[in-house]
Amino acid sequence: MGEDRRGRASYVIGPDGSPLTMADLPPPNTKRWVIRRKAEVVAAVRGGLLSLDEACRRYTLTVEEFLAWQRAIDRFGMPGLRATRVQQYRN
Length: 91
Fold this sequence. Notes:
Layout: E1 12-13, E2 19-20, H1 35-47, H2 52-59, H3 63-76, H4 86-90
Antiparallel strand pairs: 1-2
């Protein structure tokens, strides 16, 4: 992971194993949250590219919504982020 002048991460490793920079993140006006986009935002926060507060502001997310994405990845991997599959993974 690289760092910029402020000591902040300039890139992190994304969910597909490739470098992820701020320019690679979903646009702030994203309305359709597919699995990959959710996973990229979680990777960015975990790697220090964005803070949790910055991610929530940028994407108009609640902390609870972001934490739910994070928990889904931790428990079930990227398939856990599939909105239509949530019921199957809750048991």
